[in-house]
Amino acid sequence: MKSIATVNFKGGVGKTTVTWLLAKYAAEKKRRKVLVVDTDAQMSLTLAVQLQESGAMYGEFENWYENQHLRRNKTILRALEKYDTMEGGHFDFPIDSAFIYQMTPNLHFVPSVVDLYWLELEVFDREKVKHFIRALLGKIEHSRNFNYDYVFFDCPPNFTALSYSVLSCASLILIPVNPDVFASRGIGLMIDGLRYRIEPWPDPQIGVFMNKAKLHRGNLTRETERYWTDSKVVCDAKRREGVSIQAWESYIPDRVDIKRAIPGRFFPSDFEEYFAGLWNNIERVLR
Amino acid sequence: MNRVNLIRSKIEQIEKLLIEVKNELEILGKESQFQPKKLQTEESLPSEQELKAEYEKLYEEFITKNSKDIITEFVKGKNKIYLKAFCKANNLPLDTTKVSKERIADEVIQWMVQRKAITKKAT
User: Fold this and answer.
1) Which of A190, A211, B87, B93 has the fewest beta carbons under 10 Å from its own?
2) Closest partner residue to A237 among B90, B117, B119, by Cβ?
3) Domain range list for chain B
4) Torsion of CA A121, A123, A128, A131, to 10 degrees
5) B25-60 residues labelled b (16+ CB within 10 A) or e (exposed)
6) Which chain B residues have a beta carbon less than 8 Å from that of A229?
7) C-alpha–C-alpha distance, residues A21 and A186, integer Å
8) From residue A176, how far is each of A72, A213, B107 by CA, in Å?
């Protein structure tokens, strides 16, 4: 089971959209068993799932979320609290269908909760929390009912206790950048910050790619190419410093219909070639 | 008399044709004067790789000397054909045929300032 975290401390680069469509692509087109975990208190991904289910004939998600996930207190925040307060090495948080929502046989989902917003005000043992996601993944891996090839984490655009834990054990960190100076700056900021903060640095694979790429007659515009060239300069410099980072030429174009595709029931076929390129790079580095 | 007029009219037609042919020859002559010069300029342009290397060199100088004047001087010292190729090779989104050298210099400076920000170490 490989874990993939999508992160960029710059907001609005398209982390949620990419994570969601990539997970859908893997589950639907590649027949991989996929779990998606929303760790962002903004709950964008959770809302996307809710919209998707409401628009379909099932519409079960809202009911499941209210009556099982929240009422039985099987949220990711509860899991974190249980992990933080555990004694004697026993992490008492059974993995069951109240924690994981099964959208399709291949695509499962752990939603976010709004209380994650206040997570930083709670007092957690930082070193202990660091191993929370690793412990949770261990429990999922050893549960009888759930078996995954990939776990995707949609991370918030800031450094929370939860994202700290995710990034401490991710096999691959995906960094989407946009053709602008702020998003491109995010690569160096993040990598330097993470290496400084996460100790020991787990040396994950890092894949950087252009999201919301501007196209002209089917090719990247000069401006997008220019930003991409400068982003690659950062990646090259980090690689020389020993970071396992790659800048992938596969890109996701900037199109209004990509947002519309998020709550859709199926993976949008118009975007297949772009996500196929991205997915090939992911599987290649995680092989 | 009619015959004389007819001959005169033919002579006039021939004269007109001769003037047209002479004018065309002059135009062709001017074009052929320009062509070798244009070809010569295009042929002497550096390759795309060289133009990219030039951009890198310029950026290094800009960083080392911390001066925008280097870029302004660089742009001033190049002709429009070179600058057009330079911008194209380095994906600078600028129509060099429509803007002044000052504007080109400003644009290059802006991209270099951005690159400095993008590549700056955070810790």
Assistant:
1) B93
2) B119
3) 1-44, 48-119
4) -20
5) eeeeeeeeeeeeeeeeeeeebeeeeebbebbeebbe
6) 90-91
7) 22
8) 35, 10, 26
Nearest CA in chain B to A185: B118
d(CA A186, CA B118): 8
pTM of the model: 0.81
**What are the beta bridge partners of residue B68?**
none
Domains in chain A (CATH in brackets) are 2-286 (3.40.50.300)
Q: Which of B91, B111, B118 sits opposite A188 (nearest CB)?
A: B118
